[in-house]
Amino acid sequence: MCNLKNFDVIVIGGGHAGTEAAMASSRMGCKTLLLTQKITDLGTLSCNPAIGGIGKSHLVKEIDALGGIMAEVIDYAGIQFRILNSKKGPAVRSTRAQADRVLYHKHVKKRLQTQKNLLILEEEVKDLIFKNYTVTGVLTKNEVKFYSRTVVLATGTFLDGRIHIGLSSYSAGRMGDKSSMDLSIRLRELSLRVNRLKTGTPPRIDINTINFNDLFIQHGDVPTPVFSFMGNVLQHPKQIPCYLTHTNEKTHEIIRNNLDQSPIYTGFLKGLGPRYCPSIEDKIVRFPDRKAHQIFLEPEGLSSVKIYPNGISTSLPLEVQERIVRSIKGLEKSKIISPGYAIEYDFFDPKDLKLTLESKLIKGLFFAGQINGTTGYEEAASQGLLAGLNAALYTMNTDSWFPRRDQAYLGVLIDDLTTQGTQEPYRMFTSRAEYRLILREDNADLRLTNIGRKLGLINDTRWIRYNEKVLNITNETNRLKRIKIDPLSSDANVLNQLWNIHLIKETSVIELLKRPEITYKKLKSLNIFQEGIYDLEAIEQIENEIKYEGYIKRQSEEISRQIKNEHTFLSSIQDYKKIKGLSNEAVMKLNDYKPLSIGQASRISGITPACISILLIYLKKES
Ligand code: FAD
Q: Which amino acids does the record list as binding FAD (predicted)?
């Protein structure tokens, strides 16, 4: 055995969950060790080189508001930025950026390697060390023991990972990486619930063999969006376009004729895949009437020759993949650089986790990322941040922290996972959040930075800028409330002439801003308005809060009612069998899910309002 080493927090895995976990705990002052298979793989984008998108970008902005690195990194690595749903309301507007894979990794690595309190070692963990159902350290393949009161497991798709291409399969964590077999075997020996999921990726195509001439070109947005609250467009590298093409009848025929060589349709691959990101085989089988499916040809980087054909994830044999690709417009002469494949891996039932992502069974052991049944870099990173900060709080013997559903998409994510579990890879959507108008991308900083600062995650520079913004919002909102326009004034005339607004009584400028057609910028043409402010983020905030005031107020009232339920705890109940009046189904589910609160119990499918009343009566009697 080698020498022993002690840390406050040990993180296993340098993917998106592991890197955010390690950064969070070390920023909070904890001596942190990150153990990962390869340092050259820190923050690797295993599949699509893109960050954000609908629902996911909300998570990225929340990570940023809590001092995490994902938004900052993509600002330095994004080669095409767009705002999706830009014509819809602010609740569902989402930022998405295409990433340069190499730059992304470089900026993750730079941040980790310059972070105080953080040591990164290239070691594969093969076992965990426990004492009385409490984790005390880890053992690596090189027989080195590291000790710590907390361990964050963030091993992604690597636990008993198995790649499938056609009817052949082999053990791997992802293409080019070994799977984590020893650890998988050891974890399966614990009394944790474990199951299999799958995901897939398309073949990568040589850019020099594509004919882009007749393809639809898609440029990024101008002005170019920025992800981080602290970011700016000058950080972005050169911006380049993506291209659009489609599958066709010939492509579909090739796929249909080769389903007998698909590991999914021949039953070789049993784990369920992501419903919202299906393979091209799945799309052809599930939607037989569709004549074409979109394919976005996305560059993997400024100096990469690889193109990622977004939309044709497949695990058919390589020879069939080649025929599929060449049947597509623009790709007739193209060459595949690396094949598409599916991967099946172990995941642990997230119902066995607390809302802090600590295991309910093993003290000090936290789970984050794909290992909890999610899919996506953003879902993984946000869980990593939460697990890392709670591991730090645990070692400090301080109260844990997790966001509620009305505070953050991260709150929705952890509540969904720990309350409902998941049968298929879970990805975030705006539709999963019931308080969408409150959980906007644009106000993530206002929702979370204060909390992040108290937790020790926010540095002084960000804190100063944040307070400036808050002050700008408050002062300017108050000023707008004070400016009143007389119906007989020249400004009233301007309103009438430019926007057909007829004032019949004295009206404040803030009331005018409630009208959908009136923007802050337009109001600047009124004499009485004077100069105003130039802080664009503060202006966006003022506009959204005023325009949606009525809806936001209603959601806030609903949240106040719900909070009472979230604070009515059920932790005193060990066995629901002893509560009279509950149905057998309710007893079984409540014993299985062990909800933390009445709020959480009410979100379990099959737990009716009648069950909730019985629980409330029981709690009242007990108190
Ligand atoms: P990962 O990024 O997988 O990182 C795990 C890390 O743990 C790795 O660095 C690994 O080296 C390390 N590790 C593992 N075991 C050990 C050990 N025993 N000791 C030390 N280190 C260890 N997401 C999407 O949103 N859309 C998609 O279409 C999509 N398709 C995908 C296709 C494929 C083939 C794969 C592999 C993934 C895909 N994903 C997709 C998922 C996305 O890559 C993951 O959700 C995300 O990377 C998960 O992050 P993570 O940090 O949990 O794990």
A: 13-18, 125, 180, 370
Of all protein residues, whose CA lies closest to atom 24 belonging to ligand 1? 376
Residues 6 or more apart whose CB falls under 8 angstroms from that of 159 comprise 179, 180, 183, 184, 187, 345, 346, 347, 371
Centre of ligand 1 to C-alpha 17, Å, is 9
Q: Is the ipTM of this complex over 0.90?
A: yes
Q: How far is CA 435 from CA 420, 428, 440, in A?
A: 19, 14, 9
Q: Is the link from the previous residue into 237 a cis peptide, with omega within 30 of 0?
A: no
Identify which of 195, 598, 198, 193 has the alpha carbon closest to the alpha carbon of residue 359. 193
For the CA of 342, the nearest atom of ligand 1: 34
Is a pLDDT exceeding 50 seen at residue 157? yes
The count of other CB atoms within 10 Å of the CB of residue 534 is 8
Nearest-CA residue for ligand 1 atom 22 is 13
Average confidence (pLDDT) over 274-284: 84
Tokens 């085989």 appear where?
Answer: 281
Going by CA atoms, what residue is nearest to atom 11 of ligand 1? 37
The DSSP H or E segment spanning 195 is strand 194-201
CA torsion sign for 315, 320, 322, 324 is negative
Q: What angle do CA 449, 451, 454 make, to 5 degrees?
A: 110
Neighbouring C-alpha atoms within 13 Å toward the C-beta of 389:
26
- Among the atoms of ligand 1, which is closest to the Cα of residue 163? 34
As for ligand 1, residues whose beta carbon falls within 6 Å of it are: 12-18, 35-38, 41, 46-48, 124-125, 154-158, 173-174, 180, 183, 199-201, 277, 343, 369-370, 375-377, 380
pLDDT of residue 608: 86
State how far the Cα of 360 lies from the Cα of 348, in Å rounded to an integer.
Answer: 12
Best mutation site among 23, 36, 146 for ligand 1 pocket (most ligand atoms within 8 Å of CB): 36
Nearest alpha-carbon partner for 15 in 36, 31, 1, 33: 36
Question: Stretch 459-478: mean pLDDT, rounded?
Answer: 96
> How many other C-beta atoms are found inside a 10 Å radius of the C-beta of residue 616?
13
Total residues belonging to the chain: 623
Instruction: Examine the pLDDT at 1 and tell me if it is beyond 70.
Output: no
Q: Which atom of ligand 1 is nearest to the CA of 177?
A: 11
CA distance 33 to 119: 5
CA dihedral 421, 424, 427, 430 (to 10 degrees): -70
Q: Mean pLDDT score of the chain, rounded to an integer?
A: 93
Cα of 155 vs centre of ligand 1, distance in Å, is 7
What separation in Å is there between the alpha carbon of 82 and the centre of ligand 1?
A: 25
Residues 343-401 pLDDT 10s: 999 999 999 999 999 999 999 999 999 999 999 999 999 999 999 999 999 999 999 99
- Residue list for the binding site for FAD: 13-18, 125, 180, 370
Residue 158 confidence (pLDDT) above 60:
yes
Q: How many angstroms is it from 295 CA to the middle of ligand 1?
A: 23
**Angstrom distances, CA of residue 594 to CA of 83, 257, 353, 355:** 40, 48, 10, 12
